[in-house]
Amino acid sequence: MGFKGSLFMVSAPSGAGKTTLVRAILDRFDQLSYSISHTTRAPRKGEVDGKDYFFLDEKQFETMIEKGMMLEWARVHNNFYGTSRPFVEDQLGAGRHILLDIDVQGARQIMDSGLEPVSIFIMPPSMEELARRLRARQTDSDQVIQMRLDNARHEMEQRGFYDHLVVNDKLDLAVETLAQIFEKELQN
Questions:
Q1: Residue-wise over 168-184: b if at least 16 C-beta within 10 A, else e?
Q2: How do beta strands 7-11 and 118-123 pair?
Q3: pLDDT tens-digit map of 98-132
Q4: Considering the entire predicted model, what is its pTM?
Q5: What angle do CA 18, 22, 27 make, to 5 degrees?
Q6: How far apart are CA 35 and CA 16, in angstroms?
Q7: Three-state DSSP state, 100
């Protein structure tokens, strides 16, 4: 498509540490811009509209889908999530490197979009550790945690579609492994 910038996608099951790892990479690589997703879920404590997500109601989100303005979108945990196609294409066309923090469903749509993303899947060290992390958040009921664990099993089955796999067992090591991937890809 002739874009000058590179598109990076990072996916992981809920609780695998994706947000922490993405923040570390953004702090380390000034040339990366973060693509803020749109969602219909309610903001969590401390989240800011336009910084963490663009928070929309379902009608607004569905209008964007109908107008073809979503590069990808999915319904996850009973909420819509998606990425604005015009934003991503404008950034790549201007030579900026974009980082998407994205779920597996959305990643598969982007892999099929023709944008040729560099895809990275973050794995938890085990299902037991993932469950412990989700409980430690103290943001979800036991029922929601079980739903997230069931979804995680399905998402981890999709890891073979990604270019790179990083296990987040020890945070410092996972950050370094991820940074090496970005260093290599940004040199190409």
A1: beeeeebbebbeebbee
A2: parallel
A3: 999 888 888 999 998 888 999 999 999 999 998 98
A4: 0.83
A5: 155
A6: 20
A7: strand
